[in-house]
User: Which sequence fits this backbone?
């Protein structure tokens, strides 16, 4: 009889085919943990750099630099895509492919950026922060892809993010900033080893988008092709390169197809054309001149770059030459040498933002050469074989790099402090505020494009806010302005208008036949609001002299009235004809009713050279402030002030900025 102790219990029996239970696992969580283990060290280096880039680009982006016409144009075009369903706020004439501002429009639409800012350009600048941070990440990955260590890759990305030269141009709404991430992605994909066909196709697609974002990036094509050719698997090289080339051609042809579908491929009467746009950009555009001509656009552009960051310019150019001797970055170094040489071609045009294309590769080459120099120096001390030339070169580069770092600290500190603390855009904001408060909404304005969207949003009719460049270059605008500049009421002058407006006969005539009514800022940041005299400058000067003489005569008579209790400063302003004629009439009537005290006149912001139109009036002889206010508000429409506000024991009386003509006869 078998003992029950030797027989297994039913509860302990295991069926032969039963599955073995293992601890429950979450595949996505395991995958994430595995990915973090592999890339944790890289993220520890990259994420702080991205954070620094985002902060540096965002901090005080509304204050510095001052808005310029170009970024206003790209933002207005992005706004037009989103709000008008059109490629541009004016006739699109193929000056640049539209993919760049289509991406800006996509960003602002997806994030609601336009609704977050009262100044439209700031929505575009926010988009630039996004594109720059993406470019920093791609540069870091590209540096790793060409064999740089994490320290060198992080140094390259950091230089690209915080160099004052980079901050100036990355903050500005340029199409180049949109194209840069795509170009970096193209080189990154071109270095693919696994899944090479997909990588090369992605490289072509990325490069195509880069070129359709900013056409000058086409200059990088030979060097991208070189990178792909030398990295291609020999057994499939012909196939992969053919596919990549075909895809790039198809992307390029999409731009041609756009023009063809719109019937604007070839020139024709009364229409723009792709051929004319290309001809202008490549052939007929005015040359920038020579770097040796201190009055040329070339000299001004390069001088601006130089003032922002001499160290990176010198070190980047030197690293481009040295990089030719480093196999892993040779195509990029050759591209940099070519792009620098291309700037100096005779009779060529040098775009101000051209440097944006150079910045990431300059930073990459500086890091690559520096890492190579340190490696060579370490090899020498570790008794590993290196040539005398390489040892000498490494020591020299390390010495130059140390000197550069020493120079960078005070240079970058000063420049970055300016970006973080200065408010260079205040004159633009103040000018827009003055226009909004004082210019009738039915007025016709010639403006810098940087404020076009804001003025349209403020209530001015779209057709009445005219980008100054379009006055005599756009048929649609010319049709709306049969009398040219004479059909406009005001012209707002910025540095862009002052430097570029001279090439337009209409704008120059508007400037010559206008007078300043308000001015904000100093130097290059000055913004003037000028009232256009449609009858011409000579007649306007005669009328102004007549009006000034009338104000002076009536003012001198009023100054003798004993009931008007004013200081010598106010009396002199009356005699000089500096008091608004409506104020003169009102004060004369007030003085006839009894004694009245008026404080010294103070000019409103931007109007220091104009008439005093704001007064502080204190009643006397038993009259109350409320009674005085009621009396002033009962004046007829011609003399009624814009506002009457109680202050202390008197009234702040403000008249509108543009008095009617002929009040004093």
Assistant:
């Amino acid at each position: 009889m078998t003992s029950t102790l030797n027989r297994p219990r039913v509860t302990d029996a295991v069926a032969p085919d039963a599955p073995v239970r293992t601890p429950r696992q979450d595949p996505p969580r395991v995958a994430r943990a595995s990915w973090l283990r592999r890339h944790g060290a890289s993220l520890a280096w990259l994420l702080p750099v991205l954070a620094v880039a985002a902060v540096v680009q965002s901090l005080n982006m509304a204050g510095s630099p001052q808005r310029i016409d170009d970024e206003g144009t790209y933002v207005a075009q992005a706004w037009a895509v989103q709000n008008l369903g059109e490629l541009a706020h004016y006739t699109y004439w193929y000056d640049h492919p539209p993919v760049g501002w289509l991406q800006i429009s996509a960003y602002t639409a997806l994030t609601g950026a336009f609704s977050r800012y009262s100044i439209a350009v700031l929505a575009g600048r926010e988009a630039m922060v996004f594109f720059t941070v993406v470019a920093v990440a791609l540069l870091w990955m590209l540096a790793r892809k060409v064999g740089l260590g994490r320290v060198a890759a992080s140094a390259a990305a950091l230089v690209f993010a915080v160099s004052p030269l980079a901050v100036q141009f990355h903050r500005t709404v340029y199409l180049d900033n949109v194209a840069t991430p795509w170009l970096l992605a193209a080189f990154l994909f071109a270095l693919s080893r696994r899944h090479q066909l997909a990588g090369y196709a992605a490289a072509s697609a990325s490069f195509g988008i880069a070129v359709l974002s900013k056409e000058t990036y086409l200059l990088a094509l030979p060097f991208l092709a070189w990178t792909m050719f030398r990295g291609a698997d020999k057994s499939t090289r012909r196939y992969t390169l053919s596919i990549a080339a075909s895809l790039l051609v198809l992307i390029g042809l999409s731009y041609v197809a756009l023009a063809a579908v719109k019937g604007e491929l070839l020139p024709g009467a009364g229409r723009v054309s792709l051929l004319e746009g290309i001809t202008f950009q490549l052939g007929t555009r005015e040359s920038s001149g020579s770097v040796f001509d201190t009055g040329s656009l070339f000299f001004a552009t390069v001088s601006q770059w130089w003032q922002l960051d001499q160290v990176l310019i010198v070190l980047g150019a030197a690293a481009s030459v040295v990089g030719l001797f480093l196999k892993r970055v040779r195509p990029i170094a050759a591209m940099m040498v070519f792009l620098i040489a291309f700037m100096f071609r005779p009779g060529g045009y040098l775009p101000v933002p051209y440097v944006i294309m150079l910045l990431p590769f300059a930073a990459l080459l500086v890091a690559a050469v520096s890492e190579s120099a340190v490696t060579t120096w370490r090899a020498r001390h570790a008794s590993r074989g290196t040539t005398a030339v390489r040892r000498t070169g490494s020591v020299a580069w390390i010495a130059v790099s140390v000197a550069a770092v020493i120079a960078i600290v005070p240079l970058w500190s000063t420049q970055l402090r300016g970006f973080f603390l200065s408010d260079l855009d205040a004159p633009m904001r103040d000018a827009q505020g003055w226009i909004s408060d004082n210019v009738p909404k039915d007025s016709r304005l010639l403006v810098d494009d940087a404020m076009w969207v804001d003025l349209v949003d403020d209530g001015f009719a779209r057709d009445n806010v005219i980008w100054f460049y379009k006055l005599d270059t756009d048929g649609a605008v010319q049709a709306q302005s049969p009398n040219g500049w004479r059909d406009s009421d005001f012209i707002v002058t910025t540095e862009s208008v002052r430097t570029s407006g001279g090439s337009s006969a209409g704008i120059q005539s508007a400037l010559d036949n206008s007078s300043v009514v308000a001015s904000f800022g100093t130097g290059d940041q000055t913004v003037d609001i000028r009232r256009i005299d449609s009858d011409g400058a000579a007649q306007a000067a005669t009328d102004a002299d007549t009006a000034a003489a009338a104000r002076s005569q009536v003012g001198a008579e009023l100054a003798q009235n004993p009931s008007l209790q004013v200081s010598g400063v106010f009396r002199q302003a009356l005699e000089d004809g500096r008091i608004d004629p409506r104020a003169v009439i009102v004060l004369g009537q007030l003085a006839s009713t009894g004694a009245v005290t008026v404080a010294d006149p103070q000019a409103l912001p931007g109007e220091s050279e104009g008439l005093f139109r704001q007064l502080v009036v204190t009643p006397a002889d038993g009259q109350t402030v409320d009674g005085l206010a009621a009396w002033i508000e009962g004046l007829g429409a011609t003399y009624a002030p814009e506002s009457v506000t109680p202050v202390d024991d008197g009234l702040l009386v403000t008249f509108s900025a543009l008095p009617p003509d002929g009040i004093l006869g």
Q: What stands out?
A: Residues 388-421 form the longest helix (34 residues). The beta strands are 445-447, 465-467, 490-493, 514-520, 527-532, 564-565, 596-598, 614-619, 643-647, 650-654.
